[in-house]
Design a protein that fits this description.
The protein has 20 helices and 20 strands. It is α/β, with parallel strands linked by helices. It has 2 domains: about 250 residues, Aldolase class I (TIM Barrel, Alpha-Beta Barrel), CATH 3.20.20.70; about 200 residues, Aldolase class I (TIM Barrel). It has an 8-stranded parallel beta barrel with strand order 1-4-5-6-7-8-9-10, surrounded by 6 helices. The chain has an 8-stranded parallel β-barrel with strand order 11-12-13-14-15-16-17-18. Strand 12, helix 15 and strand 13 form a beta-alpha-beta unit. The termini are far apart.
């Protein structure tokens, strides 16, 4: 028995029990017709829509964020997402149908009930609790049942996100009359992921039918880099685990929305760290390069990190350090990300499971291209100055910058950034984040509150 068969069996038992507690006739007497808010919200956008998902666990990932506070996440999603998906399956995903009603009190964004729908009762139940749409999984339902469930949802003003994973399933979904088609990059029988699955299946949709349906890419989407690869191919992305498991969900949401993030590097005091975070910094950098005037000891770094933990992404900056020492410092301090600012090789970077940044001191045009093969989350462009590592403070020549590399969503910019030049640079290149150090200092190692405030504000004007 595979996972879908197990969950179908479990769901059937739950539905039987629920019908006794809350009978269908009582639900139907109290159901208020919706206005197809989920469909209309995505359809009305001229950009890729973001569907942010709330889930505490899953069979493939195990516990993702078991202590997640629904109210806090829905407030974030209300600010950064177009629609919200909520897992309501209890046994495998730690969900509750009551989450829908609780979320409805907080947000006006359309809500999708994400569950394993096998009975019409669940559709009416979803609307009763306030859902605007339900997920229908093609592999769980016959074509006739798909059509029937879609018609029920339509009759009460709800929408159906009808999910498939392969070409056979896609054809079945297209023939069912589904208006919103979800392409899952995860095989629900094996849990194997293939990010390329969306593009492969989209190509199989007839041109005449493509203009009449909304396509949502699901699973394996964890960065703006991947989202930009989907632009022009799909209408929306559904992102859950990447947000729920992020050290700072707000930062991940800003990233996947294409906002240019801000990293304040070379933080040496607890007060500077707190000020940077209060002003809206997404990352702070702690420099462990002993030759840097902004070097911090592990003991001091830990104090700083504890003061802002969970409020920003904590980045440790290293230059050609032993992998053993880097791992030890990362664990002791509680770093969320590593930045390699020396001559680290591709094989060296592979040794780390923690998300990472590879700084590239650019000395020639297109010199960054060879670093795209590095298994890092981001590449950070900095100016080249012989013998200087861990930040030069020099501005990168625009002659060396290629706008197309920033469109990948993987490349960030540093080097001589200031409140005076940052707006033009963000407008011109739209880097995934900008990294500033000396440009917001009163003197080396001491940040200026007013300069940080101006820099962050001018970065976010776009």
């Amino acid at each position: 028995m595979n996972f879908l068969e197990k969950i179908a069996e479990s769901t059937e038992a739950q539905v039987i029990m629920k019908k006794k507690i809350l009978p269908l006739d009582k639900i139907m007497r109290n159901v208020k017709k919706g206005n197809h808010a989920f469909l209309n919200t995505i359809k009305g956008k001229n950009k890729l829509s973001v569907i942010a998902e709330f889930k505490k666990s899953s069979p493939s990932a195990g516990k993702i964020n078991s202590s997640a506070n629904l109210k806090q996440f829905i407030k974030l999603y209300d600010e950064y997402a177009d629609c919200i998906s909520i897992l309501t399956e209890e046994k495998y995903f730690s969900g509750k149908i009551s989450y829908i009603a609780d979320a409805k009190k907080i947000t006006k964004n359309p809500l999708l009930r994400k569950d394993f729908i096998i009975d019409e009762y669940q559709i009416y139940e979803a609307r009763y609790f306030g859902a605007d749409a339900v997920l229908l999984i093609e592999k769980l339902l016959s074509k006739k049942m798909l059509e029937y469930f879609i018609s029920i949802a339509d009759s009460i003003g709800m929408d159906c996100l009808v999910e498939c994973h392969d070409i056979r399933g896609l054809k079945k979904v297209l023939d069912s009359g589904a208006k919103i088609i979800g392409i899952n990059n995860r095989n629900l029988e094996t849990f194997k992921e293939d990010f390329g699955n969306t593009e492969k299946l989209v190509k199989k949709i007839p041109i005449k039918k493509r203009k009449d349906v909304i396509i949502v890419s699901e699973s394996s989407i964890d960065s703006i880099e991947k989202i930009r690869k989907l632009q022009g191919k799909v209408d929306a992305v559904l992102v859950g685990s990447a947000i729920m498991s992020a050290p700072v969900p707000r930062v991940k949401l800003r990233e996947i929305n294409g906002k240019t993030l801000t990293k304040i590097c070379g933080i040496t005091t607890e007060s500077d760290a707190k000020q940077a975070v209060s002003l809206g910094a997404d990352f702070i950098g702690l420099n462990f390069y002993s030759k840097s005037p902004r070097f911090v000891s592990v003991k001091k770094a830990k104090i700083i990190a504890n003061a802002v933990k969970g409020k920003c992404v904590l980045v440790g900056v290293f230059v050609d350090e032993s992998s053993v020492k880097v791992k030890r410092i990362a664990k002791t301090v509680g770093l969320n990300m590593l930045q390699f600012s020396g001559n680290e090789s591709e094989s060296y970077v592979k040794k780390f499971k923690i998300p990472s940044i590879k700084a590239v001191r650019l000395s020639k045009k297109n010199g960054i291209k060879k670093y795209f093969k590095y298994k890092t989350n981001f590449l950070l462009i900095d100016a080249f100055e012989k013998g200087l590592f861990g930040g030069t403070g020099k501005t990168v020549s625009k002659n060396l910058l290629n706008k197309s590399i920033f469109s990948t969503g993987k490349v960030a910019l540093s080097g001589g950034l200031t409140p005076e030049n940052i707006t033009d640079l963000v407008r011109q290149y739209n880097p995934v984040f900008v990294d500033v150090c000396s440009g917001v200092e009163s003197f080396p190692g001491k940040k200026s509150f007013s300069k940080m405030k101006s820099f962050i504000r001018y970065t976010q004007v776009i």
